[in-house]
Amino acid sequence: MTNNGTGWEECNMVSQNQTQYAAIQPYGGQTAWFGSKAPACQAAADHSLARQSAAYIASHTAYGTVNAIGFCDIKLVRNTGEIDGSWTNVGFWTQTATVQVQDGWKPATDAVAQTKLTDKISTMSQADFSYGTSKVRDAVNEIMQSGNGIEVPTISVDPIPNIVSPPVTTTSTITNPDGSQVTVIRNETKTTTFPVTNNNTAKPTISQNDTKTVTSTNEQGQTTSTETTTQEQQAKDDLCSQNPDSIACQSMDTPSLETPKRTETISYTAENLGFGGGACPSPVTWTDFLGTHSINFGQYCDVLTTFVKPVVLACALLMAVFIVMPGKVET
Predict the structure, then answer these.
(1) Does residue 169 lie within any of the structural domains?
(2) 79 secondary structure, DSSP code
(3) Is the pTM of this model over 0.90?
């Protein structure tokens, strides 16, 4: 490694695979290989200009530009601004080669690293250190350039001891239905824990859980009940104490009234709609000045029952099949 005179050292060279590009020259052949398309395109433009006469070269400039679709556009422009020759969508050849590159820079000594970081941070304001800003991180990245030298240490927080509040003891007397009295001793303790999650970052996660335990005992020392309240339940209790009229804190009762009942008798009689009860109407006879006339509906009924009825039933059957048959989904 070498020192460049500013307290920084150049790291060793390492092998790395690189995609290289060579532009196809309009007058034949290809350019040399480059690490990106832009210099290869410009080399093809310079080659096109070099193919011209000396006077032409002196009065023109070559421009090679990679267009939006990744091809090379070449222009030969007069010094007065007019385009005197152009080639569009010139292609490239590609290859993968192994090249030697530097693996970044790092401070020559710890003192140099500390001085660089101190100088950078000294220009920041109090707001730059607020949670959510990236000024400090950006400063370290700028100093380290490629990020190789100083590593930001991972912060690991040791377990935080639990906090147990002093117990609160209250005594109350309960009167039983038979008139006897029982003394109940109520002990309340509160424990606060702080779970720590070290997730291998510079900002571990620390949470807080509160647990309240209430134990009631009688005069003989027998436990009568134990109640444990978690942090979530306690939050609801706090909500109801602050907002007693909230609908979430109301206790709903059960109605004691019976639902009224009654019995109704409903009868149904089919109406006569004048269709003859399904039978063919009897012949109609009338008399006028021309004589006596009669219309016999039997022939019409025969046509309906013989021809029309089967057709209606067939149509109904076909419609029923369409109803139950699944349709085809067009995509």
Answers:
(1) yes
(2) T
(3) no
